[in-house]
TrEMBL record:
Protein's organism: Alligator mississippiensis
GO terms for biological process, alphabetical: cell surface receptor signaling pathway; immune system process
Name assigned to this protein: Immune-type receptor 14b
Span of domain Ig-like: 33-112
Entry keyword set: Immunity, Receptor, Signal
SUPFAM superfamilies per UniProt: Immunoglobulin (SSF48726)
């Protein structure tokens, strides 16, 4: 049985129409059952709509969370939460499992 779980291979996202960068770690590992946070940071501004997406192997991209700056909207019923605090946008698993293995994308937009 795995002792460590590779959560994601994440990308550095650069928005094409604005001079904003979203920084994320290249990967994250965690132990099944653990509470595990994944943070991305918005560079140069904090006034954008923020999104968390997930793509599991062989599956389509799915929206997980959205924030327009005040509060967060969840599109999933899985045991995870997202919190935006200034330019930080953190996705936290309440109980990590092997089914959470995927590529996770943090994205920003100046439009909905």
């Amino acid at each position: 049985m795995w002792r460590c779980l590779l959560l994601s291979t994440l990308l550095l996202w650069r928005q094409g129409f604005c001079s904003v960068y979203v920084e994320q770690p290249p990967f994250l590992t965690g132990v099944p059952g653990a509470t595990t946070p994944l943070q991305c940071t918005l560079i140069k501004t904090s006034h954008y709509h923020m999104f968390w997406y997930r793509q599991r192997a062989g599956r389509e991209l799915e929206a997980l969370f959205y924030s327009a700056g005040v509060g967060e909207t969840s599109f999933t019923k899985e045991p995870m939460e997202a919190k935006k605090n200034g330019s930080d946008w953190t996705l936290t698993w309440k109980s990590l499992s092997h089914s959470d293995s995927a590529v996770y994308y943090c994205a920003c937009s100046d439009a909905q």
